[in-house]
Specification:
This protein has about 375 residues and is an alpha+beta fold. It contains 15 helices and eight strands. The structure holds fe (ii) ion (2 copies).
């Protein structure tokens, strides 16, 4: 499944090999450890339960995907995803609440629909399904399966009701933390747009280019939907640290002095303080959203050969999200109008990126992903034009 994490080795055009680290995958990664701990404890005290799974519902695709799965045998069930529309019983449960108990799966589940066939294939005797809610919206199910028929006695159902509430609260607390972080980030984005060193259109184009690149790399790099969504949301904050840099330096025409370049490269402390306030001190700090936001802000001027700033990181040490924003930012900077430079055509901008990739500065996989989508790159520029 796409939730798993890992690394894969990628060879760049220039012969530089980058370990394409799979980035933090959002809620699933953040929660899975805690939930698996809870589930394992429940398996230990309820001997008739053989599997506990949490599925997450995505309203945009109607997909239910299993994101935490504990089994007594320790075997993970692969490719466990279905759409809510394929089961009217699950739809009713999602809308109406309550629980669904199937005491004899082989005898009761007869349908030919995807979900029924899946249930029979697993070989379980009985199951209990409990919907989860967050902010009054359906967010997924907790599914308990037993190899035995009639395993879900009234007593066990009562115990599992309490346990399900605990899981639901755990998940909701993380959802609430992400909502809070995103609300603060939205305020920070408004600040960035107010500061007139770059146009709002630049930020929109960079965010859309980043999403285009990430979607194109999703399959080969195993990127998750959550990562792509976070990248799109936070790419607009990439230069938040510039907020504190004086206009005289930021908008200067002509060459910067070494001192001025130093100010740009270390970025202003004011922007950093804003970022710290957005990320907060407690629960928000550990969220994958926070990590990704910080990686974008800190890493988008790093270059694969170590020639970037502020830390001079090399290759695999630069998070993928920062490598993607770097390419989108360089590309848009070269193809849009600046006080000190005439814009290049899209072709020339892409050629410039390929040149930089060949020189080992930027990630050639990322550049290739952008280049492959020439028509979409053009459409983004049509949609978000400078005033
Ligand atoms: Fe920047
Ligand atoms: Fe930028």
């Amino acid at each position: 499944m796409a939730w798993s994490s890992g690394t894969s080795v990628k060879t760049l055009k220039a012969g530089v090999t980058v370990l394409a680290r799979h980035p933090a995958g959002g809620l699933a990664d953040d929660l899975s450890g805690r939930l698996r701990g809870l589930q394992d404890r429940m398996l230990a005290i309820a001997p008739t339960i053989d599997r506990i799974a949490c599925t997450r519902y995505d309203p945009t695709t109607d997909l239910l995907k299993t994101f935490v799965n504990s089994t007594r045998s320790g075997e993970a069930i692969a490719d466990d995803a279905c759409t809510l529309a394929t089961s009217s019983a699950l739809q009713a449960l999602a809308q109406g609440g309550g629980v669904r108990v199937i005491q004899d799966i082989p005898a009761t589940v007869q349908g030919t629909r995807e979900h029924s066939r899946w249930l029979r294939r697993q070989g379980y005797g009985s199951s209990l399904t409990v919907p989860m809610q967050d902010n009054s919206a359906f967010i997924g199910f907790i599914v308990y399966d037993s190899l035995q028929r009639n395993a879900f006695t009234a007593t066990l159902q009562r115990d599992l009701e309490l346990f399900s509430n605990l899981i639901n609260i755990t998940i909701s607390s993380v959802y609430a933390a992400v909502r809070s972080l995103r609300a603060s980030a939205a305020v920070a984005q408004d600040f960035v747009r107010l500061r007139d060193y770059e146009t709002g259109s630049h930020l929109d184009r960079v965010a859309h280019d980043c999403r285009l690149i990430a979607k194109n790399l999703a399959q080969p790099l195993g990127l998750r939907d959550a990562f792509i969504e976070q990248l799109f949301l936070y790419a607009t904050l990439h230069d938040i640290r510039k907020i504190g840099i004086p206009d005289a330096i930021l908008l200067k025409e002509g060459n910067l002095t070494p001192e001025e370049r130093q100010v740009i490269q270390t970025h202003g402390p004011l922007g950093l303080q804003i970022l710290e306030k957005v990320i907060g001190k407690h629960a928000l700090r550990d969220l994958p959203d926070s990590t990704l936001m910080r990686n974008i802000v800190d890493g988008h001027h790093e270059r694969l050969d170590g020639s970037g700033y502020p830390l001079g990181l090399r290759g695999e040490a630069i998070p993928l999200e920062a490598r993607i924003v770097a390419v989108a930012d360089v590309f848009d900077a070269s193809t849009c109008r600046r006080p000190y430079r005439q814009p290049q055509a899209i072709e020339a901008g892409l050629a410039e990126l390929e040149h930089q990739a060949a020189g080992g500065l930027v990630d050639s996989l990322v550049v290739a992903a952008l280049t492959r989508q020439r028509a979409d790159v053009e459409a983004i520029r049509q949609r978000f034009q400078d005033d």
